[in-house]
Structures are given as structure tokens and as C-alpha cells.
Amino acid sequence: MKLPDAVPAGFEVLGSAEVFVHGHLPLAAAFCRRLGLVELVNRLVPSQMAVSPGLVVQAMVLNTLSGRTPLYHLENFLSELDLELLLGEPVDAHAFNDTNLARSLDAIFEAGPSKIVTELGLQAAKIFSLDASVPSYDTTSTSVWGDYAACENEDDPVPGPRIVYGHSKDHQPELKQFMTELMCVDRGVPIFGRTLDGNSSDKKSNNQMLTEISRLMARHGLGPGAFVYVTDSAMVTEDNLQAVGPNRFVTRLPANYKECDLAIARAVDAAAWVEIGALAEETKGKLRPCAIYKVFETQVNLYGKDYRAVVVHSTSHDRRRQKKLDKAVTASEKKIAAELAKLPKHYFCEADAKAAAATAEKLSGGLHSVSASVREVKVRRRGRPPKNGPVPMDTQYELDFKTSVNTASLEKERSLAGCFVLITNVPTTGDGAMDATGILRTYKGQYGVESDFAFLKDPLVVNDIFLKKPSRIDALGMVLIIALMAWRLMERSMRAHVENTKATLPGWDRKETRKPTFYMMTWMISKIIVAKTPTHRVLLSSLGSTETAYLLALGLDSSAFTNPKSFCTPIIPGKITAKG
Questions:
Q1: Is 405 within a domain?
Q2: Residue 526 forms part of a structural domain
Q3: How far apart, in Å, are the Cα atoms of 77 and each of 48, 275, 340, 539?
């Protein structure tokens, strides 16, 4: 039977068959099955409910990755889908009502959301051969609209994270918030994460992570010296640097440390930079050119211990600091002009004129130079001139001022403004050694965590949170991290396929791309129509070249849309798979 040109989302009954347009959700479900998500959650979360916690988690993950409906509309969302295909077993959408959803979140909290994420991270690393040698750590805040009055009394314990006011990374200090911490590997795949109090300190969170990282990484088969912990400048405290122990790290030295200024000054004065060039994998266009890097290595001493310091200069200067420098130049010029205006320009005594010139030149600073010269001039003597003879003249002295920008000093200041300092205890020789370029590349890999936070806070993915209990927010945070894990693994698979096959995938505007994204894939796999009868499922149209290419890049085939037991074949970077 031929379908109409436009088939609405969900399904419509055509005789004895139901027609579904699921988009990319069957592919995400295949990745969840490959991870063993349902089985793992059910093993860790005891429950006597009719619908298992594992099915609830996978349903919530798929809803999150759909980016279409809030989680509190989960029942309505699922009522339009082929749940057996997406969840692996037939189940009624009404089983995912608010009551069962709340009970599942409560059971997950009691079992420990971070424990579930950790165990799933271990499975993901094993199944997909993740490179866990460079774990990146960071935190972010998420603002909420509720008042959460029960969290305000610090002496009264509250199950779950405290939803309170804190330093808002969303720039919404008027709202209460909770914090999320993530540890990611292999270009942003989370292997650890949990929800923290809204007023948690990044410095203390780093300290807690440093006390646990040896145990966590040991479970991934990595001992001290086999991995490099990458994090932001909040790590740099005396307690945290001591807590590092034998582990290796790379972090950014805060600009308020005197050693930071000294290291940058040494680099600028030495002018012995090592040119690196661009680190971006592809250009950003003429309006957003890639940053060009150069590095200089020196040493700093913090709390009585020496560390390698890599001074990095980027052509993409810090805009705030550059604007501050421009304002300083303008202010310096105005100040000098105001002081010069106070000095008389005409003198009868040459000594006085020269003294005033010296005073004017003392106004020279780091950004401007003032030069003053004394000029002898003849002026007619006051009074009535004689009738005969020359006009009597007196000698006076005039000052001439010239203010100029100290170009060399200004360029030095601009160079200082464009620099930052990385510190590390990674050795320069021996096992695991890195040069300055390697240190920078390792640190820049942290962008994966930052883009992960963008996913977790994207309103198209994560709608406003309408949960009253902090404990349920904790459990929901786990669901979002698992959704992020699936998203990252799918994107990693596509890029590994491109890398392994030296091929491209169809991208935007009919252009080929070597950097496919999850969002791009959702558009390319958006129109596949499946009919379900009481006995089987069938594609109602053959797959096009674009759909086939993306399925191949994900380690899948058309059975992902018809077989409830279908799962992906992991595509490993540098390794050609049977389907790759």
C-alpha cells in the first residue's frame, strides 16, 4: 500500500498494520542494548515494580535524545512509539505514568546514581575500546525555578544534592541551582559523573575527585603514571597539589598567582617560542580563523615544589583582557594630557623651562612616552616702542610636548594578554613523557567536557526540570549523563568510521563531511518509515544512499528498524570492522 507523501510523527493505522516514523531513536536504542543498559540498571536497582527501572531509564534516555518533549510527558511520548522495538520487549506506554516514574527515580537514588554511571562507564570503555589514558574533569551549574526551601537549612540533612544559591556559571545568580561534575575520556565520553550541591566549590570538588581517581582509574586498568588527569585552574591549591600524589596531571595556572606573571614575562623576554600552528581539526571560516599557537617552556615553584610550566601564546587573544588593555591605553593618554595642561608653556628663565621639561618627561609610563623640548623665542618688550631705532626684544622660552605610544611596550603587553600558563608534573623523558606541544594538545582535549555541558544544558535536549525532590534530581542527572554517553558513543563511531575508511559522509547543504555530528545524523535518518503487523515489521521504502552510509558508520544495518534485539557493532578508531 502506498503511503501519503507526508506521514505524521508517530503512527496511523493502515488496515492491520501500524506505521511508525521513529527517526534516529532505533539507532540510539541499538547502542543502549550494546551497552547492556537495561540489564545493568536492573541488576543494580532492586525493584518489584511491574515495569523495571532499566526499561524506565532507557525510555527516559531515548526521550532525552529525541529532544522533543519534557520528561514529565514521557507517557504521552511513548504512546506514539513501537515500544517493543525501542525497549526490547512489549510494554504498555501507560506503565510509564508519573507514579511509576517517580518510584523508579526514588529506587535509582537509593541504589546510587553515580554508581550506575561508573559501572556503565566501565562497560562502555570495555565494549568500545575507549582510550581512558587522559581523563578530563570539570563541573557546571544548572539553574532551576523552584524554591526548594527544605534545602536552605544546612543542619537539616536532605536526601540528594542541596538546591541552593551558588556561583552561577549560567549567569543567573537569582536562581537556585545544582552542580554536575563529569569525568570524560576519548573525546568526551563520560565514564563518571554525579550531581553536587548548588554551592559546591570547584576547588573542593577537585580535591574529592583527586582522592578517588586512583581507585576509579585502576578499575579501567590504569595505575599511577599510566594516565594524565586534565582539569581547569580550580585544581591549583596547596591541598589539591598534595592530593595528586603519584598521579600525573595537566592544569591551567590561575592568573592571580605571581608565578603566572613571572612565567609569561620570561617567555616574552626570551622570545624563544616554539611555533605549533593551528590545533583545530578544520577551519572555522574567514570570519572565525583558527587560533595559531606557540609555546615556551619554563618552571614555576608552587608551595615549595617545582613544576613544569608551558607558556602558551594564542592569536585568539582573550577579548576581555584585550579590551581592558585598550581602555588602559586611552586612560593613560588622557591622564598625561591632563597633567601636561597644568604646566605653563612660556618661561622667562631658561632654567625654569628646562625643569618643567624634565617634569613633563617624567610623565612617561609603560604605555606612553613624553618628550619635551625647550625653544627660544623673541617677543617684543612690553611698553611703547621708541620712535627711532629697533624694537626692543626680550628672550622667552617655550615648551613643546610630544606624546607617543610606546609601541614596543604596548606590543609586549598585548603579548602578555594573549598568554596563559599550563603546569604539569608529566616528565620530559622516559615513559609517558610529553614535550610542550604534547602538554598543550592534552589540555586542549578538555573541550570535550565543555561541549558535554552544552548538551546537558541545551533546552532542546533537556527541558526545564520540574522535580520537587532533590533526590529525584540526582537520579535524573544520571539519566542525562547516560543519554550523553550514548550520544558521544554514536558520534565517536561515525568519526571512527570516517577515519578508518578515509571516506566522507553526506553533510549539510549536500556537502560531504569528515566531521559528522549526532545532530546531523538525526536529520539524515529522519524519514524512514516502518510498518508493524502482528507478526513482523517491514520497511515501507528502500533505504537511500545517505541512510545506508550513516547506518554503516554506526555499525548498524536496516535491521535496527525492524529487529527489537538489534545492536550495534562497535567501530574502533584505527580498526576496520566487519561492517566498517
A1: yes
A2: yes
A3: 24, 53, 74, 22
